């Protein structure tokens, strides 16, 4: 299958010192404040942030849709400000809320059209376009006008049109928007396959954390116009994985002085959340250091509390993201 030409440089996208201020009702609003990051060739990176964090402004600044106040963006060594036309040849994008296709054209006509205006031959790349229809499950809709498609199929068509341009760098903003669970899974599988086979550089922005966790190896989190995390997903999750536990103990006749036990737990582990049922007591706790779990278990042993289960809380990207944003905004310790 034909693929975009490979580049020699390890860093394909480089963003340095990006700043942008808007005027809102005569008030200055700093949308992005000194944003700097790089993306290696062939890497698929997640770009996350709460609403208003500045991620859309950052993406549009890279694409040349917004002119930043300061900072530089280079793509494959090309300065986007000094050589905008040449830099744009290296990039394609699907932007949330934008009309990325012509609704009175069919799926196939859209793919041919958008590839053509980017200089990709519809004749030479016909097999590749057919491949995109196959991998994105669009074969049955190829001759359907986009205006008659469901929102999910419209979104997949927009993704197909962006990929058909065969640019080495692709931005996908909310690529699973409007997709049902099955279609979202299919698109994630398609992105993994395409990125693996073609080794494109892809930046994915989404509110669906499962998408980012499923297709990306690294995540950049932006909050308040600044990057607050730039980490591999595995490394990020490991920061939250090791100290969150849920312990279930039985309330039976062998257990003495339940009230004094709970008071001791509250005193020694004030961060613990305790809930009771007629038969059990559940203790959810985020330990400050990994050795505290032994102290709690020893407390339970001395009281004669029978432990039914100890489970390590499973942490996904959504929980890690929320924790990071809350800490950045001073909402938790």
Give me the oligomer status. Answer: single chain
Give the domain tally: 2
**Helix content range:** 25-40%
Tell me the radius of gyration: 25 Å
Q: Regions with pLDDT < 50 over 5+ consecutive residues?
A: 1-9
Instruction: Count up the helices.
Output: 11
- What does the main sheet amount to? 6 strands, mixed
In the CATH scheme, what's the topology name of the largest domain?
Answer: Rossmann fold
What spatial form do the alpha-carbon principal axes imply? elongated
Distance between the termini: 51 Å
Brief rundown of the structure:
This protein is an alpha/beta fold. It has 2 domains: 222 residues, Rossmann fold; 74 residues, Alpha-Beta Plaits.
Q: What are its keywords?
A:
14 strands, 28% strand, Alpha-Beta Plaits, Rossmann fold, alpha/beta, six-stranded mixed beta sheet, 333 residues, 11 helices
Q: Can you give a write-up of this model?
A:
It is a single chain. This protein has two domains: 11-232, P-loop containing nucleotide triphosphate hydrolases (Rossmann fold, 3-Layer(aba) Sandwich); 242-315, Alpha-Beta Plaits, CATH 3.30.70. The chain is α/β, with parallel strands linked by helices. A hairpin with a 2-residue loop joins strand 4 and strand 5. It has helices at residues 55-63, 84-88, 107-117, 126-135, 151-164, 181-198, 209-215, 233-241, 258-268, 292-303, 317-328; strands at 11-24, 27-40, 44-48, 70-75, 78-79, 91-94, 169-173, 201-205, 218-223, 226-232, 244-250, 273-276, 280-286, 307-312. It is elongated, with a radius of gyration of 25 Å.
């Amino acid at each position: 299958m034909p693929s975009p030409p490979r580049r020699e440089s390890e860093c394909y996208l480089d963003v340095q010192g990006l700043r942008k201020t808007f005027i809102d009702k005569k008030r200055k609003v700093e949308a992005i404040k000194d944003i700097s990051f790089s993306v290696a060739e062939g890497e698929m990176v997640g770009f996350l942030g709460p609403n208003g964090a500045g991620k859309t402004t950052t993406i549009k600044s890279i694409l040349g849709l917004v002119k930043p106040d300061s900072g530089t963006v280079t793509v494959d060594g090309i300065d986007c400000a000094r050589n905008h036309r040449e830099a744009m040849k290296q990039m394609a994008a699907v932007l949330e809320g934008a009309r990325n296709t012509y609704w009175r054209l069919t799926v196939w006509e859209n793919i041919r059209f958008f590839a053509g205006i980017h200089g990709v031959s519809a004749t030479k790349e016909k097999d590749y376009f057919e491949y995109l229809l196959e991998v994105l499950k669009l074969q049955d809709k190829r001759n359907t006008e986009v205006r008659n498609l469901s929102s999910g199929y419209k979104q997949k068509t927009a993704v197909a049109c962006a990929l058909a341009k065969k640019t080495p760098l692709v931005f996908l903003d909310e690529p699973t928007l409007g997709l049902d669970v099955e279609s979202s899974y299919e698109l994630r599988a398609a992105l993994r396959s395409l990125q693996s086979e073609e080794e494109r550089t892809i930046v994915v922005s989404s509110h669906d954390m499962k998408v980012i966790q499923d297709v990306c190896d690294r995540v950049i989190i932006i909050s308040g116009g600044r990057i607050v995390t730039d980490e591999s997903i595995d490394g990020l999750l490991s920061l939250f994985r090791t100290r969150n536990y849920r312990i279930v103990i039985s309330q039976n006749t062998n257990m003495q002085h339940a009230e004094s036990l709970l008071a001791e737990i509250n005193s020694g582990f004030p961060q613990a959340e305790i809930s009771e049922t007629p038969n059990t007591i559940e203790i959810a706790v985020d330990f400050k250091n990994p050795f505290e779990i032994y102290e709690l278990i020893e407390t339970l042993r001395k009281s004669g509390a029978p432990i039914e289960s100890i489970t390590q809380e499973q942490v996904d990207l959504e929980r890690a993201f929320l924790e990071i944003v809350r800490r950045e905004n001073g909402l938790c310790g």
